[in-house]
C-alpha cells in the first residue's frame, strides 16, 4: 500500500483528491493536511504527498516534502522562478526523491497541449484562451502557460515566425499576456470549472482545439497515475505528459 498525504485537503482539489485516494484499493490516506496543520508531523509515514494548496508558500511546502524524503505530486499553479530554485536545491540533497509539477492532470488537457504544439507548426497565427471559475487565484492558468511554452518551442524548432499582428492596443491587456511570443487570454466566469481553447489561423481557415473539465473528477485519474508512478521518477519533472 502506498501511503498518501494530501496537502490543501480542505480545498476544492484537495477534497476531490482525498475522495479519490480513499476509493483506491492500493492507496491509503495517511494525512489530510490543512493551512494550520504541522506539515512535518503530517508527512510522517507518507510515501507520497499530493500538493493542492494555493500558490503562496508552495515552494516551501514542496521543499519540505523533499527534505522529509516524501515524493511530491504538485497540482498547484501560479508559482515559477525563484520558488522552483528552492525545490531544485532541496532535490540536490535528496536526489532519489521525485517531484512532479503538473499544471493539469486531465488526460484531455495533456492531449490538447500535444495536439496544439503539433498544429502550431502549420498555421501562421496561434492564440490561447483559458476560461476558469472566478475563484481561481492565478492568471494565466498554469495549463495555458504550459500550452503556450510548448507551442512556442514547436514553432521555434520548425522555424515558424511570430503570429502576424499589426494592432497597437489602446488599453493595457487588450491583447492578453505574452508567453514566449504567444498571446494568452484569461476569462473568469461564474459557472465554469476549467476550459482552454487554442485558436489557429491560416489563409481562409481556422482550427480550434478545445478541452473542457466540467468537474474536478476529471483530474483524478491523472493524480492517481502520478501517485502510483512517482517513486520510479526521481528528480524534477514538469508536465504529466512525461508520465504517459
Ligand atoms: N494540476 C491540476 O490539474 C489542477 C486542477 C485544478 C486546480 N489546480 C490548482 O490547484 C490549486 C488549488 O486549487 P483549488 O481550486 O483547490 O483551490 P482552493 O482555494 O479551493 O484550495 C486551496 C486549499 O489550500 C489550503 N492551503 C493554503 N495554504 C496552505 C498550506 N500552507 N498548507 C496546507 N493547506 C494550505 C487552503 O486553505 C485551501 O483549503 C490551484 O493552484 C489551482 O490552480 C490544479
Ligand atoms: O481551477 C483551477 O484553478 C485550475 N487550475 C489549473 C491551471 O491553472 O491550469 C488547471 C485547471 C484548473
Terminal Cα separation, in Å?
Answer: 22 Å
In one word, what is the shape? elongated
Largest sheet: 6 strands, parallel
- Ligands, ions, cofactors: nicotinamide-adenine-dinucleotide, the ligand O=C(O)C1=N[C@H](C(=O)O)CCC1
Order of helices and strands: EHEHEHEHEHEHEEEEHE
Under CATH, the topology of the largest domain is which?
A: Rossmann fold
Which CATH top level class of the largest domain fits? Alpha Beta
Domain count: 2
CATH architecture level-2 label of the largest domain: 3-Layer(aba) Sandwich
| Total count of strands | 11
Strand content: 25-35%
Q: What is the CATH superfamily classification of the largest domain?
A: NAD(P)-binding Rossmann-like Domain
| Mean pLDDT value | 98
Order of strands in the sheet with most strands: 2-1-3-4-5-11
* Class of secondary structure makeup: alpha/beta
Residue stretches low in confidence (pLDDT < 50, at least 5 long) are: none
Function: Catalyzes the conversion of 4-hydroxy-tetrahydrodipicolinate (HTPA) to tetrahydrodipicolinate.
Subunit structure: Homotetramer.
Family: Belongs to the DapB family.
EC number: 1.17.1.8
